[in-house]
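User: These chains co-purify. Model them together.
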Amino acid sequence: MSKTVDINVHHVTRIEGHGNIVVRAKDGVVERVEWQVPEAPRFFEAMVRGRSFQDIQTIVSRVCGICSFTHSLAALRAVEDAMDITVSEQTDKLRVLAHYGEQLESHALHVGYLVAPDLLGVKSVVPLASTHLDVVKCIIRCHRLGNEWMELLGGRKTHPVAFRVGGFGRLPSIAELKDLKKRLEEIIPDLCTVADVVLSLAGGLPAFDRPTEYIALTNPGEYSFYHGPIASTDTDEQVPVQEFERVINEYVSPQSTAKWAKWHRDSYAVGSLARFNINAHELLPLAKATAAKFGLEKGCCNPYMNNVAQIVEAVQVVEHGLQLIDELLSAGITAEFPKPKPKAGDGAGAVEAPRGILFHRYQFDENGICTGANLSIPTNQNHANIQKDFEALVPQFLDLGQDKLRLYLEMLVRAYDPCISCSTHYLNVEFV
Amino acid sequence: MSDCVVIGLGNTLVSDEGIGCFLVEALSQRADEFPGVDFEELGAAGMRVLHAIAGQRKAVIVDCAIMGTEPGTIRRFTPDDVRTIKSMPGFSLHEGDILRVIDLSRVLGEAPEEIVIFGIEPALLEDCEGLSPLLTDRFEAYIAEIAMELR
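Assistant: Joint model of the two components:
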């Protein structure tokens, strides 16, 4: 096989902002390996300046169509931190429950619509629906349930309207929670089927390990997506969310308009595999059994296994969601609709988006008007790590030739489940 | 019981990209005039269209569209009238192409009998809130045209 490759996966339009893969090697000598992110800066931080503390979560939910609940919740946590607002146990549980709907929805979508086609050698889920209809229907039922779960608690399938500073503007009824519980119980066989199908194809995931620093929230007694300080696989130190800038250490790379991040090494990774590597000991039984099926264990540093960790987490959120519903049902739903008062302050919030830890920080004046903001999204935190993976992967797989190498690089980017083109979704058509 | 859904798509923080959301939000305020019609503003969550149209008799999708026409133009078409020329690397769930979602819905056998798309050619696609002056001026005309489809 030739050891000369020239890969240029180029999808640049400034407004849509995709990533580019550029690899050049001649006679086995790697000359250039780059993961480029040319997305135009979005300036969301400027958009929230001058807005009321009560509106921030609604505005920033529009940053992302997939992670809109996570953005809303990170904003609420930061606003409440700035205003010294403590939410009730009921609010905390309902928010975590709502957030789990987004985790299920996003993970099902990613594994089913992007990863499965790779493993089955087709270009998208559309042909897959013709050849593997039963499996695709399983995936769609998971995705659909995630959507309806989000709608019940967030008031809408996306861009939630029920979340308020200090609590909720609308609370679910006991009957709605009981119905959700029934539906979560019913989805477990579908999740097991999806796991079994991916397991049967997991040999198609490249064998590629690169020692990596992983970063995620951690909290004793739970597999955290929402609570606790920031932890790393490289240190025992845990950093309070209020000091998140000490972790992300953002810097600028000439090959990217997005900022990059690093902590103890040149780069770090966030996402499902990071959470698994830090919190796997807290998984519930079925999720733990799902990880065991794949032989996924703490310390895994194969980035392609992020896809498997997503399946494990999809099971985890359903399993823990059922527990949370039981707790809410036994306590009963209290009609609490707090009306928080603004105060001047600075606050930070962190929530684990499906694709990794998300940080928000805001400053407010005494009237609760936002005077400053800083958002650090998980995909930006992963960019440097994708580059480092590329640099290690290309020499290892150069022998496979251009087409296979290109596929492996594209699969690697997909494995990180990046959020790099959320800005626009317009149709682009020609009439026939 | 509704058997028709009107879906607004787009990002309201990217000027005219959000036109579908703004129009469907405005139409939903007049929902009493349209019995049997549900309105869903799905923002930038393109894949969720799959679920919103499943099992409906008719779906009307309102979205910003690059059609090669004059900015501000509204055009009614069906998915079979067009082909997508959107280039996507397939890296991310965040890429959206509603025409491919409709393809999937059809393969699954849950697509509505009738799907109508109203595309509005943008005048401005920059990160800012609110519509361009051109689309703002024509907003009520767009509402009237879509409303005719629902009566």
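Residues 44-401 of chain A form a domain with the Cytochrome-c3 Hydrogenase; chain B fold (CATH 1.10.645.10).
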